[in-house]
Amino acid sequence: MAKKKTLKIAFIGGGGIAGHHAGLFSKYDDVEIIGMSDVAPASRKHWAEAYDIPTYSDYRKMLRELKPPLVDVCTPNFLHYKPAMDAMQAGSHVFVEKPMAMNARECKAMVARSKKLRRKLVVGFQHRFEARVQFLKEAIAAGRFGKIMFTRVSYYRRRGIPNWGVFGRKELQGGGGLIDVGVHALEQAWYAIGRPKPVAVSGNAWTFIGDDPKKARDIKCMWPGWDTKTYNVDDLAVGQIRFADNSILALEVSFAMHNQEEGFNYKIHGEKAGATLDPIKIYTDDYGHMVDVTPAYLPEIDIWDVKMRGVIDHVLNGGPNLAPAEDGLMVQQMLDGIYQSAKVGKEVRVS
Ligand SMILES: NC(=O)c1ccc[n+]([C@@H]2O[C@H](COP(=O)([O-])OP(=O)(O)OC[C@H]3O[C@@H](n4cnc5c(N)ncnc54)[C@H](O)[C@@H]3O)[C@@H](O)[C@H]2O)c1
Predict the structure, then answer these.
(1) What is the DSSP string of 177-202?
(2) CATH number of 7-126+305-323
């Protein structure tokens, strides 16, 4: 009997999300985790014991010794670009967690290298696989909405500044709520409306809670006591993105602000129909009436299973890339545009 094809995977970064990935990969019989690298000794010890694999403090040594067919990059944002570039150079395909990198310049170089060296490059977006998102995407692609004019996307946390990791440090993360969680809301809404090309962005970003020691100490919240001394990222960021077809997407994201709503949502306004993600509904006209269309059934989709299985099937079996690097780049161009516009105080072009 022919031996089953397996995909050998090595990790760079062995923290929270890597542990989650590894647990999911371990469920598939066509995957083998062959190594990991982390600068933290405790993390290496844990992985060596849990998976009985060699661990490395220097990922370049791991790339040289193991020559992994797929490298899963799960380091903080400032360490997506270099490990991904080095892994592609060393001959590996790459799966990189979101956001794809610190900025669009890095993403462009990653896309270029993947094309030049014919390496597969997948970004760790998963919310696009949700049943509600697929429902809206299919209805929009089928022309149910006519021309999309305006989309309003939000991801609000009232007081949700992570009190672990490096999420409050711009130099290590590239930004705050916008790049960390706004990326999720933006990528799935943009995917649902058909991935239009961004051409110009205007926006602003503010820090007014995260750097206040009294708020971190005295206001009760789920993650109190974050490091206010090093906090230099956006609590609230807003932006307006103009696409090549002249439609507009407005984005509002907060790690912290004084607001009633929590979580993410979006509204889509087309010439023939509109929609909300939550509640999942299409608003349109039919039979001489204004009608609301609610799907009677949406399948239970395990978005993490689709994400991980998608990577394996793309790399091992030549299946489609469900979250291509080109998407990561365009999403990052929009995020960059908001940060850049906030800095210069005017609209910026996307190039
Ligand atoms: N898709 C999602 O829903 C999702 C969820 C959580 C995190 N993420 C992304 O995953 C990435 C990691 O986040 P996390 O929550 O796992 O962070 P984390 O802090 O738990 O883990 C990061 C790990 O990288 C290690 N590391 C740092 N420098 C290194 C180096 N030079 N070489 C090797 N390892 C190094 C750290 O020691 C740590 O163990 C971030 O980019 C984050 O945005 C995505």
Answers:
(1) HIIIIIHHHHHHHHHHTT-PPEEEEE
(2) 3.40.50.720
